[in-house]
Amino acid sequence: NFRAPGIPAGWSPRAGQGINPYVPSATPCASSSGSAIAAAANMVAVTIGTETDGSIMCPSSFNSVVGIKPTVGLTSRAGVIIISPRMDTIGPICRTVSDAVHVLEAMVGYDPRDAEATRMASRYIPKGGYGQFLNIDGLRGKRVGILRKDFFRFAPGSIQEKVFRDHFNTMR
Asked: Which parts of the sequence belong to the Amidase domain (predicted)?
């Protein structure tokens, strides 16, 4: 936590402790957890998060939504309190991959208010945008490696083990 030691993940001075909408006893994880909670609870259609070190990806993962952490400079950081100019970025947190991609498309590009970061990256935005890469069958026929030993350690027969296995069975 960059604000102060001892402050729990998901805490806000304005509204108090954020709560994971699916597992209230679980951590909502990291500084953009309010955005992830709002998307997961269907309070808003799209949200934006900022990330230095996991603040888009962690709350997206923990709250079961989709976060995209863009390459630094792909989106403008104008108005953001910068912690690390080489790592800070802004990205979408949404309920679906499609929503996140379309929000990212609206965010990317050159911004004179953050010219140093956005000038170079804006040259690499694909013509036709990112939406052209959305494909509902994108994983069909692909092989997915699943790290188990020494990576995920769930007690045999636990709910975590069942959910983990069920997610990968769904992708098959």
From this structure: 13-156
